[in-house]
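forwarding from the other thread:

> can someone predict this with C2E?

sure thing
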Amino acid sequence: TKNKGRNGFSFFQPSMNIIAQNQRQLINDLWMAQDNGELRLFYQPKFRAPDGPVVGFEALLRWQHPQRGLLTPDVFLPLAEKTGLIISIGNWVINEACRQLRVWHLQGNTRWSVAVNLSALQFEQTGLVETVIKALSTHQIPAELLTLEVTETTAMRDPDESIRILTQLTELGVKASIDDFGTGYSSLLYLKRLPASELKIDRAFVKELQEQTEDATIVSAIVALAQTLNLKVVAEGVETPEQQQFLTSLGCNTLQGYLLGRPLAADKVPELADFFTAD
Ligand code: C2E
Ligand code: CA
Ligand code: CA
Ligand code: CA
């Protein structure tokens, strides 16, 4: 068409420039976000199957951007990873989760645990163990109340190295969880040697659980594998009572999802907990 220009690409250039400019601006903002106190952790409850009590929370990162509002990780995490900012942001997340754990601990919720997500870069960074030790000791948190979630893909990138890092961490008493399980390619020999205490079944399998019997078979197989390896199974993305019931009957120990609880700001969490721990 007429708009296309001589080389056939010029039509797209203006909008591509806008996108690039937009991303550059966002990267600039992200550099300041931490110092400006714009990062937040939201907490999504994890329930003992089928419907409680609350056993802990997963910390999920948010960015309260001054102009763009509350941003979810899909908008800025790729930028944080590309620029290496994820290291300092990730260190902030670990410390902040421990600070919050301490607050809840002092309020009497002494059994709650918090799980923190680690990106690949952060997992492989040399200072991780020191960061965890410092956060636990600063906030006087028993190590077993902190769980570190690493995706299956990250854990299997360099399995021997992952075993080494996770061994150092779990020797502190911290727990390890293999996230998004079923989407990567695990070597079962390595999985057996990973000092993890749980597998989290990826939401993709939970989503189609009703329609495709294949997914039900996969979930059963993961549960059987986990039981053999002495790991607990968490199902994430539980949105319907049917999924809740089915996943429980398949043997999942812990459930997480919008049906039971959305990610909440820290100050909204105690209300929810009062509701679920009335026994
Ligand atoms: P993830 O670790 O797999 O976390 C689960 C994601 O699914 C969260 O999205 C959560 O809000 C969402 N979710 C939970 N229940 C449901 C449900 O029932 N239905 C649906 N449709 N979604 C549900 P969120 O908070 O946007 O986080 C996305 C991803 O960003 C996380 O996936 C994790 O990989 C990453 N992430 C979040 N916080 C951090 C962090 O502090 N550090 C690092 N490195 N990554 C993080
Ligand atoms: Ca996770
Ligand atoms: Ca996950
Ligand atoms: Ca995921």
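The pocket of calcium ion (ligand 3) is lined by residues 179-180, 200, 202, 236 (CB under 6 Å). thats all i got for now
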